[in-house]
């Protein structure tokens, strides 16, 4: 079964450093997403991306964050200057079609746990 | 505005008991989708079910069943004869069928099944 792959599974970074989280979506998918889950809390939408541009972003997704699909296969989330409160699990997801026309909606990756110290 | 409420923060049961996880949602749209995801201790999000707003039929999959009631805006999830492996956090989520289809998650219910 096709998978969304996220690397690394765990990253520790110092406050103020830049970090890039990487995702390889399923190859024929067109819509890409990042979600965040602070430990013990709910999963929150960050950003959606389609046709090489951001479709929608949440209030959380401020100027510190950016996304890119640099080479047609990877989908990255960059946090420019990390803060302690950026510590969370970050999930990448992809979907094939708009309107969740497929029965399973998204496919989520297994997440990257980011720890800012 | 969209909202998903899972009022039960944590539920503990003994193996073989039945357990129901509640989910209440709010949306102004007439077309929307509802989901349940399981998050085991390993942290990944495991898709369980997706329901669209036009399909109010209840669904059963093995020990899992879902009760969708539009009249009460609820989409409850029942595990029959629970097992220790069912221990996880369960999230209900809502997506409107337009725009970018972002998922709005509830706060989750932690289910602990004791042997």
Features:
heterodimer; A: 117 residues; mainly beta; 4-stranded antiparallel sheet; 0% helix; B: 115 residues; 6-stranded mixed sheet
Number of beta strands of chain B: 12
Sheet with the most strands, sense and barrel status of chain A: 7 strands, mixed
Number of strands of chain A: 11
Mind summarizing the main beta sheet of chain B? 6 strands, mixed
Instruction: Give the overall pLDDT of chain A as a whole number.
Output: 91
Question: What fraction strand of chain A?
Answer: over 45%
- Number of alpha- plus pi-helical segments of chain B: 0
- Classify the secondary structure makeup of chain B into a structural class: mainly beta
How much helix is in the residues of chain A?
under 10%
Termini separation of chain A comes to: 36 Å
Mean pLDDT of chain B: 92
Q: Could you spell the SSE succession of chain B in H and E letters?
A: EEEEEEEEEEEE
Q: Roughly what percent helix of chain B? A: under 10%
* Gyration radius from CA atoms of chain B, angstroms: 14 Å
Mind explaining what this structure looks like?
The complex is a heterodimer of chains A (117) and B (115). Chain A contains no helices and 11 strands. By secondary structure, chain A is mainly beta. In chain A, the strands form 2 sheets. In chain A, strands 2, 4, 5, 6, 9, 10 and 11 form a 7-stranded mixed β-sheet that branches. Chain A has a 4-stranded antiparallel β-sheet with strand order 1-3-8-7, with no helix packed on it. In chain A, a hairpin with a 6-residue loop joins strand 7 and strand 8. Chain A is globular. With 115 residues, chain B is mostly beta strands. Helices cover 0% and strands 53% of the residues of chain B. In chain B, the strands form 3 sheets. In chain B, strands 2, 5, 6, 10, 11 and 12 form a 6-stranded mixed β-sheet that branches. Chain B starts with a strand and ends with a strand. The chains are: A mainly beta (117), B mainly beta (115). At the A-B interface, strand 4, strand 5, strand 9 and strand 10 of A face strand 5, strand 10 and strand 11 of B.
């Amino acid at each position: 079964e096709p998978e969304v792959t996220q690397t690394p599974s765990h990253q520790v970074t110092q406050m103020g450093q830049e970090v890039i989280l990487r995702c390889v979506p399923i190859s024929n998918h067109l819509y890409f997403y990042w979600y965040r889950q602070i430990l013990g809390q709910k999963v929150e939408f960050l950003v959606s991306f389609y046709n090489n541009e951001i479709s929608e972003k949440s209030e959380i997704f401020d100027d510190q964050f950016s996304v890119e699909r640099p080479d047609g296969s990877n989908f990255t989330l960059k946090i420019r200057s990390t803060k302690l409160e950026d510590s969370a699990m970050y999930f990448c997801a992809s979907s094939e079609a708009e309107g969740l026309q497929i029965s399973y909606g998204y496919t989520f990756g297994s997440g990257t746990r980011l720890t800012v110290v | 505005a969209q909202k998903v409420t899972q009022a039960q923060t944590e539920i503990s049961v003994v193996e073989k008991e039945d357990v129901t996880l509640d989910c209440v949602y709010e949306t102004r749209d007439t077309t929307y989708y509802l989901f349940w995801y399981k998050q085991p201790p390993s942290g990944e999000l495991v898709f369980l079910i997706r329901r669209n707003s036009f399909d109010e039929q209840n669904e059963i999959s093995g020990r899992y069943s879902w009760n969708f009631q539009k009249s009460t805006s609820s989409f409850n999830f029942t595990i029959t004869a629970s097992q220790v492996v069912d221990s996880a956090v369960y999230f209900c989520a809502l997506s409107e069928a337009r725009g970018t289809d972002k998922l709005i998650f509830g706060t989750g219910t932690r289910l602990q099944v004791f042997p």
